[in-house]
Amino acid sequence: MGAWAIAVHGGAGVDPNLPAHRQEQAKQLLTRCLQLGISALNSNHPAIDVVELVVRELETDPLFNSGRGSALTENGTVEMEASIMDGTKRRCGAVSGVTTVKNPISLARLIMDKSPHSYLAFSGAEQFARQQGVETVDNEYFITPENVGMLKLAKEANAILFDYRIPIGKETCGAGIESPLQMNGLPISVYAPETVGCVVVDSEGRCAAGTSTGGLMNKMTGRIGDSPLIGAGTYACDVCGVSCTGEGEAIIRGTLAREVAAVMEYKGMKLQEAVDFVIKERLDEGMAGLIAVSNTGEVAYGFNCNGMFRGCATQDGFMEVGIWE
Amino acid sequence: MGWAIALHGGAGDIPLSLPPERRQPREETLRRCLQIGVEALKSKMAALDVVELVVRELENCPHFNAGRGSVLTNKGTVEMEASIMEGNMNCGAVSGLTTVVNAISLARLVMEKTPHIYLAFDGAEEFAKEQGVETVDSSHFITVENIERLKQAKEANRVQIDYTQPIQKTDAKKETPIANGDSQLGTVGCVAVDSHGNLASATSTGGLVNKMVGRIGDTPIIGAGTYANELCAVSATGKGESIIRGTAARDVAALMEFKGLSLEEAAKCVVEERTPKGTVGLVAVSAKGEIAMPYNTTGMFRACASEDGYSEIAIWPSGLN
């Protein structure tokens, strides 16, 4: 206790051929977000506020797959989801299927603070947003030309998969055909890293976590991934705060975020050990990554896929931003 | 070893004074559903098929809060949700259904026929049409009792807002034993282990009476209302928000796995120590054929049976039934 720590991520599963300038852009964004969080922590803002602040920044920037810049559904629209959790008392809020709300993470927070429920979705969530007077825009605002192009490629990739009757989902395109790197059934160049997230422990030892996403490129309309699911994409309790990213279905099955806390609570593991254990043992064939902080001021991350956009910082001045191993 | 099955029709503040006409049809349904599950297991049906079959039966019964008989949203509509999970970690979930007769079956189709786990609202309804599952006009699900429950819930809320007082539970119980006692009923669910040691869990609900449109509870959330792995299968019921933050179903399995607790100890721990009193009940079976049905509410509609001949149907703690 006594020292703060923060970590952010912009998605796990990175195209190894990502152009250098894009890598630079990503690192700059991660750095900027870290600095935003650090500044708030130094002014003694509670963890939950810092998480919301940083995730808002990530949502607003079109670079990653959340808010503006979200991946597109099969219909070419955007359906965003997010969840936030306050480790103290494990209060939580989540949204799915938002189409006009500029910052889904803030709507998730309002659900936690201002509604009798924990999770609202689709038209119900949109109605609540209007009642609360949050900032809303047209769905077009969130759509970037880049993602329109990606959607086309994704549809083509899926067409190929269907032609060769290769099963989609958990199994990769491994029926004797030389396959490119894949995640969630899409070639890595087209698979948009799924989410953004932030975890924070403040100087009072309070943990919080938040995750936000546009979801899987070319997803079925109405598809909900791991990001809004408490225990899967997001979790925070007395001992830690966790945010996950990667193949949503694998994260849900593995209740990944909760898992980190569970092995800390029930097996007495320390943070890094817990993170390593979960990534190694809980993903089977699934590909994912996560960031985590502990109530004792530690920060850790892990991933079993090709890269994860991440950054972390601790009060003693340590700061690191990275993409690859 | 051997097969085992447990099912529930909701945990909540079920008053001991529940009149016979409200009690018997439900006990009868529990009995019938238990029978169906037991016969299926005896004929070597797989656990996944058994839990789906039993939950379909519970959904079709208008006396429980799932499928027909679902409680109503604040707009007087029905929004149903469900999830299903197998011991090999395959799972499926749906939310926001308004016309699908059996939510649990749609959840299974999501699991088996899509690359996703969870579909909701319009997207789920569209998928249902594509799959040709049975759909009906939404009015099919609405019962007279639930219209009444909604009315009373709204009145209680109105009082609360007007007088800024918490709802006096005892007063409400005196005047509206139906509304308050029954309105806490969370869900229906079934867990089973078959003769091959395969586990499965299924949970289905109409949600919370007078809920905001679009509200999602614990039932479709893997790890909260439903969970299964190679150790156990769990289905939870009660106050959704408490089950979500406590990741109740997953916690039973986690305690077994990480702390080496037995099924009974793990289930008891979750219900007695990890969730607030008055909020949760669950049914669980282990790969070894053990059964646990703990709850921290006044009662829980439940039934279970195992291959060694044991069976039980109950609402309150033993001795009070």
TrEMBL record, chain A:
The record's keywords, sorted A to Z, are: Autocatalytic cleavage, Hydrolase, Protease
- Residues bound to substrate are 223-226, 245-248
InterPro entries this protein is in? Ntn_hydrolases_N, Peptidase_T2
Q: Where is this site: Cleavage?
A: 194-195
List the active site. Answer: 195 (nucleophile)
CDD domains, per database record:
Asparaginase_2
Q: What is its EC number?
A: 3.4.19.5
**Which chemical reaction does it catalyze?**
Cleavage of a beta-linked Asp residue from the N-terminus of a polypeptide
Instruction: Name the domain of life this protein comes from.
Output: Eukaryota
| Molecular-function annotations in GO | asparaginase activity; beta-aspartyl-peptidase activity
A GO biological process held by the record: proteolysis
Q: Could you describe the subunit structure of this protein?
A: Heterotetramer of two alpha and two beta chains arranged as a dimer of alpha/beta heterodimers.
Q: What is this protein called?
A: beta-aspartyl-peptidase
User: Source species, please?
Assistant: Acacia crassicarpa (northern wattle)
UniProtKB/TrEMBL annotation, chain B:
Q: Where does substrate bind?
A: 215-218, 237-240
Q: What is the name attached to this protein's record?
A: beta-aspartyl-peptidase
MF term (GO), any: beta-aspartyl-peptidase activity
Q: Name residues in a coiled coil.
A: none
Q: Does the keyword Protease apply?
A: yes
EC number(s): the record gives: 3.4.19.5
Query: A Pfam family matched by this chain, by name?
Result: Asparaginase_2
Quaternary structure and interacting proteins, as annotated: Heterotetramer of two alpha and two beta chains arranged as a dimer of alpha/beta heterodimers.
The residues annotated as the active site are 187 (nucleophile)
Cross-referenced InterPro entries, in alphabetical order?
A: Ntn_hydrolases_N, Peptidase_T2
Q: Where is this site: Cleavage?
A: 186-187
Gene Ontology biological process terms from the UniProt entry:
proteolysis
What keywords is this UniProt entry annotated with? Autocatalytic cleavage, Hydrolase, Protease
Q: Which reaction does it catalyse?
A: Cleavage of a beta-linked Asp residue from the N-terminus of a polypeptide
